[in-house]
Predict the 3D structure of the following.
Amino acid sequence: MAEHTVKAFDEDITRLRGLIAEMGGLAELSITEALDSLVKGSEEIAQKVIARDKKIDALEAEVDRMAVNVIALRAPMADDLREVIAALKIAGVVERIGDYAKNISKRIGQIESRKQFEPLTLLPAMGEIAVEMVHDVLTAYGARDPILAQEVIAKDAKVDAFYNSIFRNLVSYMVENPATISSAAQLLFVARNIERIGDHATNVAEMVYYAATGSYPPEAEERAEG
């Protein structure tokens, strides 16, 4: 009986991991396409991202239902419970990452005179780092790899540096040419969403590290103490 219960629990965890991997793949694709639509000014690509968000939301709901059932039926303890809780939390964060990609896509049609904005050349580079973070953190989750999770956390400083540079650049544009304020504000919104994607990838990395080791990474503990 115990053997059957263990096997059933392992199957549940494998299913949860599969759902999160599917969610993550869709979120990663959405970020990539949102950035592509930004560069090309393509509302057609943007609409694909917006439509895909419903699928990501549905997968998160499925993870929620399954995690609650596992806790209710299997009564997992210690490491097993930590695994289920981590899956529940990570699914919520991945869903938010999908929302940020959707939010970027909703701004595409509101950006005018695209060629005059130098930050528009910086945003894709910033976005590439955020996409790498999402990809790597999902790999770390699948492999239960705390070292890769720490590498993801370290990359967040690069995303923040890009955001600060783009923010200063766009504010200068708005001051020097008030006619650009509306479009520049949309680009600021895009930059902020990319920065938040990096933050959320970092949050997932901290959960992965915790699920694998039972403790939070040193960087997270330092922030908590600060």
